[in-house]
Amino acid sequence: KQWYQRRVRALLRVENPDEGEPWSAWNICYTWAEKNGYTTARTGRADVYRGANSILRLVVEGRLCIRLTPPNYSNTPIVGSNLELLSELMDFANKREEEGEEEEGVSE
Predict the structure, then answer these.
(1) In 3D, which of 7, 36, 38, 6 has the Cα closest to residue 23?
(2) Exposed, middle or buried: residue 36 (CB in 10 Å: 0-12, 13-18, 19+)?
(3) Could you give the CA distance from residue 28 to residue 49 in angstroms, rounded to a whole number?
(4) Structure pTM?
(5) Which pLDDT does position 101 carry in this prediction?
């Protein structure tokens, strides 16, 4: 998690506004909003929500790569019935891709 936070901060080129305090998602979005001049209309403070939205747009556009692991994720190999299920799902996905390629070839 800490490696990932350092990587995002390096990609966005932002500095922690609370020196000595640990980084948080709020701090990253706050600093990104300040850096890009996103402010609220009435108070003139950094618009953290707009900063977060901007970061999410970078992710969707593929300009910022984010890798998240699911809760309780482990690197143990898949065995038993889970392996069979995974094989079936992969076969199904491959068949769907092949069908899609065949349809594209017919329409051209």
Answers:
(1) 6
(2) middle
(3) 11
(4) 0.56
(5) 63
